[in-house]
Amino acid sequence: MSCPNMQTPEGVRDIESTMHTDFHNTMSYGSYLYLDRLLSSQHPVSSPEHHDEMLFIIQHQTSELWLKLILHELNECRRLMDHDEIGKALKCLARVKHIQKTLTEQWSVLATLTPREYAQFRGVLGSASGFQSFQYRAVEFILGNKHRGMLKVFESDPEAHTLLSTLLDEPTVYDAFLHALARAGYSIPASILERDVSEAWVFHESLIPVFMEIYESDTTPWSFYQACEDLVDLEDNFQAWRFRHMSVVKRIIGFKTGTGGSSGVAFLKRALDLTFFPELFAVRTEIGK
Fold this sequence. Notes:
By secondary structure, the chain is mainly α. It is built from 13 helices and no strands.
Protein backbone atom coordinates (compact mmCIF):
# COMPACT_ATOMS: atom_id res chain seq x y z
CA MET A 1 0.00 0.00 0.00
CA SER A 2 1.43 3.35 -1.05
CA CYS A 3 1.75 6.21 1.32
CA PRO A 4 0.20 9.50 0.02
CA ASN A 5 2.96 11.51 1.64
CA MET A 6 5.73 9.36 0.23
CA GLN A 7 8.54 11.56 -0.98
CA THR A 8 10.00 11.16 -4.47
CA PRO A 9 13.48 9.61 -4.23
CA GLU A 10 16.39 11.93 -4.75
CA GLY A 11 17.40 12.23 -8.39
CA VAL A 12 13.92 11.37 -9.67
CA ARG A 13 11.56 13.97 -11.15
CA ASP A 14 7.98 14.00 -9.85
CA ILE A 15 5.16 12.88 -12.16
CA GLU A 16 2.72 15.72 -11.57
CA SER A 17 -0.80 14.69 -10.56
CA THR A 18 -2.32 16.56 -13.53
CA MET A 19 -0.28 14.64 -16.10
CA HIS A 20 -2.07 12.05 -18.25
CA THR A 21 -0.73 8.51 -17.85
CA ASP A 22 -3.53 6.30 -19.21
CA PHE A 23 -3.73 6.16 -23.01
CA HIS A 24 -5.91 3.09 -23.50
CA ASN A 25 -8.76 5.19 -24.90
CA THR A 26 -7.11 8.42 -26.00
CA MET A 27 -4.49 9.56 -28.47
CA SER A 28 -0.89 9.40 -27.29
CA TYR A 29 2.33 10.88 -28.57
CA GLY A 30 3.21 7.60 -30.26
CA SER A 31 -0.17 7.08 -31.91
CA TYR A 32 -0.30 10.70 -33.18
CA LEU A 33 3.07 10.27 -34.87
CA TYR A 34 2.43 6.69 -36.00
CA LEU A 35 5.68 5.71 -34.35
CA ASP A 36 4.83 2.04 -34.69
CA ARG A 37 5.06 2.43 -38.48
CA LEU A 38 7.88 4.96 -38.49
CA LEU A 39 10.20 2.99 -36.22
CA SER A 40 9.49 -0.29 -37.97
CA SER A 41 10.40 1.08 -41.39
CA GLN A 42 14.12 0.40 -41.17
CA HIS A 43 14.90 -2.91 -42.89
CA PRO A 44 18.60 -3.65 -43.37
CA VAL A 45 19.16 -6.09 -46.23
CA SER A 46 22.72 -7.13 -45.45
CA SER A 47 23.12 -10.71 -44.20
CA PRO A 48 24.35 -11.07 -41.61
CA GLU A 49 23.03 -7.62 -40.77
CA HIS A 50 25.84 -5.06 -40.77
CA HIS A 51 25.80 -2.77 -37.74
CA ASP A 52 26.32 0.40 -39.80
CA GLU A 53 23.56 -0.21 -42.33
CA MET A 54 21.06 1.18 -39.80
CA LEU A 55 22.95 4.48 -39.85
CA PHE A 56 22.83 4.52 -43.64
CA ILE A 57 19.07 3.89 -43.73
CA ILE A 58 18.14 6.41 -41.04
CA GLN A 59 20.39 9.08 -42.57
CA HIS A 60 18.45 8.86 -45.83
CA GLN A 61 15.01 8.41 -44.30
CA THR A 62 15.38 11.52 -42.15
CA SER A 63 16.61 13.44 -45.20
CA GLU A 64 13.46 12.41 -47.05
CA LEU A 65 11.30 13.67 -44.18
CA TRP A 66 13.03 17.04 -44.27
CA LEU A 67 12.67 17.16 -48.07
CA LYS A 68 8.96 16.51 -47.65
CA LEU A 69 8.71 19.54 -45.37
CA ILE A 70 10.79 21.70 -47.72
CA LEU A 71 8.47 20.84 -50.59
CA HIS A 72 5.45 21.54 -48.39
CA GLU A 73 6.83 24.99 -47.54
CA LEU A 74 7.88 25.85 -51.10
CA ASN A 75 4.44 24.97 -52.45
CA GLU A 76 2.87 27.27 -49.87
CA CYS A 77 5.44 29.98 -50.61
CA ARG A 78 4.54 29.85 -54.29
CA ARG A 79 0.81 29.98 -53.51
CA LEU A 80 1.26 32.99 -51.25
CA MET A 81 3.32 34.82 -53.86
CA ASP A 82 0.59 34.13 -56.41
CA HIS A 83 -1.75 35.99 -54.04
CA ASP A 84 0.75 38.83 -53.40
CA GLU A 85 1.17 37.81 -49.77
CA ILE A 86 4.92 38.26 -49.90
CA GLY A 87 5.37 38.77 -46.18
CA LYS A 88 3.77 35.41 -45.38
CA ALA A 89 5.77 33.77 -48.16
CA LEU A 90 8.96 34.99 -46.49
CA LYS A 91 8.06 32.95 -43.39
CA CYS A 92 8.01 29.82 -45.55
CA LEU A 93 11.42 30.67 -47.02
CA ALA A 94 12.83 31.31 -43.55
CA ARG A 95 11.71 27.85 -42.46
CA VAL A 96 13.19 26.24 -45.57
CA LYS A 97 16.54 27.89 -44.86
CA HIS A 98 16.64 26.40 -41.36
CA ILE A 99 15.77 22.96 -42.71
CA GLN A 100 18.55 23.26 -45.29
CA LYS A 101 21.10 23.97 -42.58
CA THR A 102 19.93 20.90 -40.67
CA LEU A 103 20.26 18.75 -43.81
CA THR A 104 23.76 20.04 -44.47
CA GLU A 105 24.91 19.44 -40.90
CA GLN A 106 23.40 15.96 -41.05
CA TRP A 107 26.12 14.88 -43.50
CA SER A 108 28.52 14.93 -40.55
CA VAL A 109 26.70 11.91 -39.11
CA LEU A 110 27.10 9.88 -42.31
CA ALA A 111 30.75 10.95 -42.46
CA THR A 112 31.39 8.76 -39.40
CA LEU A 113 30.97 5.78 -41.75
CA THR A 114 34.44 4.63 -42.78
CA PRO A 115 35.28 3.37 -46.30
CA ARG A 116 35.78 -0.19 -44.99
CA GLU A 117 32.50 -0.20 -43.08
CA TYR A 118 30.50 1.00 -46.08
CA ALA A 119 32.25 -1.41 -48.45
CA GLN A 120 31.10 -4.30 -46.27
CA PHE A 121 27.41 -3.71 -47.13
CA ARG A 122 27.46 -1.44 -50.19
CA GLY A 123 27.02 -4.36 -52.53
CA VAL A 124 23.55 -5.20 -51.20
CA LEU A 125 22.25 -1.78 -52.29
CA GLY A 126 22.20 -2.95 -55.90
CA SER A 127 21.36 0.01 -58.16
CA ALA A 128 19.53 1.96 -55.42
CA SER A 129 20.89 5.51 -55.22
CA GLY A 130 20.02 8.94 -53.86
CA PHE A 131 19.87 9.99 -57.51
CA GLN A 132 16.46 8.31 -57.49
CA SER A 133 15.02 10.51 -54.71
CA PHE A 134 11.83 11.89 -56.25
CA GLN A 135 11.44 14.45 -53.47
CA TYR A 136 14.89 15.87 -54.13
CA ARG A 137 13.97 16.17 -57.83
CA ALA A 138 10.67 17.78 -56.85
CA VAL A 139 12.52 20.44 -54.83
CA GLU A 140 14.86 21.08 -57.76
CA PHE A 141 11.90 21.32 -60.14
CA ILE A 142 9.96 23.83 -58.04
CA LEU A 143 13.12 25.94 -57.74
CA GLY A 144 13.87 25.89 -61.47
CA ASN A 145 16.32 23.07 -62.20
CA LYS A 146 13.88 21.20 -64.42
CA HIS A 147 14.83 18.22 -66.58
CA ARG A 148 12.15 16.35 -68.52
CA GLY A 149 14.51 13.41 -68.98
CA MET A 150 14.40 12.76 -65.23
CA LEU A 151 10.81 11.57 -65.52
CA LYS A 152 12.05 8.31 -67.05
CA VAL A 153 13.76 7.41 -63.78
CA PHE A 154 10.36 7.36 -62.04
CA GLU A 155 8.22 5.49 -64.58
CA SER A 156 8.09 2.51 -62.20
CA ASP A 157 6.64 4.74 -59.45
CA PRO A 158 3.36 6.25 -60.72
CA GLU A 159 2.85 8.53 -57.72
CA ALA A 160 6.34 10.03 -57.97
CA HIS A 161 6.04 10.31 -61.75
CA THR A 162 2.75 12.19 -61.44
CA LEU A 163 4.17 14.60 -58.87
CA LEU A 164 7.20 15.42 -60.99
CA SER A 165 5.16 15.68 -64.20
CA THR A 166 2.88 18.17 -62.48
CA LEU A 167 5.76 20.26 -61.12
CA LEU A 168 7.47 20.18 -64.51
CA ASP A 169 4.53 22.00 -66.08
CA GLU A 170 3.91 24.40 -63.21
CA PRO A 171 5.62 27.75 -62.55
CA THR A 172 8.53 27.77 -60.12
CA VAL A 173 8.82 29.80 -56.93
CA TYR A 174 10.99 32.23 -58.91
CA ASP A 175 8.32 32.52 -61.61
CA ALA A 176 5.74 33.31 -58.93
CA PHE A 177 8.01 36.00 -57.48
CA LEU A 178 8.61 37.60 -60.87
CA HIS A 179 4.88 37.67 -61.58
CA ALA A 180 4.32 39.32 -58.19
CA LEU A 181 6.92 41.96 -59.10
CA ALA A 182 5.18 42.54 -62.43
CA ARG A 183 1.83 43.06 -60.70
CA ALA A 184 3.54 45.57 -58.39
CA GLY A 185 4.65 47.61 -61.40
CA TYR A 186 8.17 46.36 -62.07
CA SER A 187 9.13 45.97 -65.74
CA ILE A 188 9.39 42.22 -66.10
CA PRO A 189 9.66 41.40 -69.84
CA ALA A 190 6.63 39.64 -71.31
CA SER A 191 8.91 36.96 -72.76
CA ILE A 192 9.79 35.94 -69.20
CA LEU A 193 6.25 36.12 -67.85
CA GLU A 194 5.04 33.96 -70.76
CA ARG A 195 7.98 31.56 -70.88
CA ASP A 196 7.67 27.79 -71.15
CA VAL A 197 7.80 26.92 -67.46
CA SER A 198 8.63 23.28 -68.22
CA GLU A 199 12.11 24.38 -69.30
CA ALA A 200 15.02 24.81 -66.89
CA TRP A 201 15.56 28.39 -65.84
CA VAL A 202 18.41 30.13 -67.66
CA PHE A 203 20.02 33.51 -67.12
CA HIS A 204 18.03 36.51 -68.37
CA GLU A 205 20.09 39.68 -68.76
CA SER A 206 16.90 41.73 -69.03
CA LEU A 207 16.14 41.15 -65.34
CA ILE A 208 19.29 42.85 -64.12
CA PRO A 209 17.83 46.40 -64.33
CA VAL A 210 14.78 45.20 -62.37
CA PHE A 211 16.87 43.84 -59.54
CA MET A 212 19.14 46.90 -59.60
CA GLU A 213 16.07 49.03 -58.99
CA ILE A 214 14.97 46.79 -56.11
CA TYR A 215 18.39 46.88 -54.47
CA GLU A 216 19.27 50.54 -55.08
CA SER A 217 15.95 52.36 -54.65
CA ASP A 218 15.08 53.83 -51.26
CA THR A 219 11.40 53.24 -52.00
CA THR A 220 11.61 49.48 -52.58
CA PRO A 221 9.07 47.65 -50.41
CA TRP A 222 10.98 45.79 -47.74
CA SER A 223 9.27 42.48 -48.59
CA PHE A 224 10.60 42.51 -52.16
CA TYR A 225 14.11 43.33 -51.04
CA GLN A 226 14.00 40.63 -48.36
CA ALA A 227 12.57 38.09 -50.80
CA CYS A 228 15.58 38.63 -53.06
CA GLU A 229 17.96 38.11 -50.16
CA ASP A 230 16.08 35.04 -48.94
CA LEU A 231 16.27 33.46 -52.38
CA VAL A 232 20.02 34.12 -52.44
CA ASP A 233 20.29 32.50 -49.00
CA LEU A 234 18.31 29.53 -50.24
CA GLU A 235 20.63 28.99 -53.19
CA ASP A 236 23.71 29.44 -51.00
CA ASN A 237 22.36 26.79 -48.64
CA PHE A 238 21.55 24.44 -51.50
CA GLN A 239 25.08 24.76 -52.86
CA ALA A 240 26.53 24.15 -49.40
CA TRP A 241 24.44 20.97 -49.19
CA ARG A 242 25.61 19.84 -52.64
CA PHE A 243 29.25 20.49 -51.77
CA ARG A 244 28.98 18.66 -48.45
CA HIS A 245 27.30 15.74 -50.21
CA MET A 246 30.12 15.54 -52.71
CA SER A 247 32.75 15.79 -49.97
CA VAL A 248 31.24 13.03 -47.86
CA VAL A 249 30.89 10.73 -50.87
CA LYS A 250 34.55 11.34 -51.74
CA ARG A 251 35.54 10.67 -48.14
CA ILE A 252 33.71 7.33 -48.05
CA ILE A 253 34.06 5.83 -51.55
CA GLY A 254 36.74 7.98 -53.16
CA PHE A 255 36.22 8.11 -56.91
CA LYS A 256 34.25 4.91 -57.38
CA THR A 257 31.17 4.98 -59.60
CA GLY A 258 27.86 5.49 -57.83
CA THR A 259 25.49 2.63 -57.07
CA GLY A 260 23.02 4.21 -59.48
CA GLY A 261 25.53 4.09 -62.33
CA SER A 262 26.80 7.68 -62.21
CA SER A 263 30.45 8.69 -62.30
CA GLY A 264 30.19 9.42 -58.58
CA VAL A 265 32.10 12.46 -57.33
CA ALA A 266 32.51 13.85 -60.85
CA PHE A 267 28.74 13.76 -61.36
CA LEU A 268 28.07 15.45 -58.03
CA LYS A 269 30.69 18.10 -58.77
CA ARG A 270 28.88 19.14 -61.95
CA ALA A 271 25.78 19.90 -59.88
CA LEU A 272 27.70 22.78 -58.32
CA ASP A 273 27.46 24.58 -61.67
CA LEU A 274 23.66 24.59 -61.53
CA THR A 275 21.92 27.75 -60.35
CA PHE A 276 18.36 28.68 -59.47
CA PHE A 277 18.44 32.48 -59.44
CA PRO A 278 21.46 33.61 -61.52
CA GLU A 279 20.24 37.20 -61.91
CA LEU A 280 20.22 37.74 -58.14
CA PHE A 281 23.94 37.01 -58.12
CA ALA A 282 24.79 38.78 -61.38
CA VAL A 283 23.18 42.02 -60.21
CA ARG A 284 25.79 42.31 -57.47
CA THR A 285 28.42 42.98 -60.09
CA GLU A 286 26.46 45.99 -61.30
CA ILE A 287 25.44 47.56 -58.01
CA GLY A 288 27.51 50.62 -57.18
CA LYS A 289 29.14 50.97 -60.60
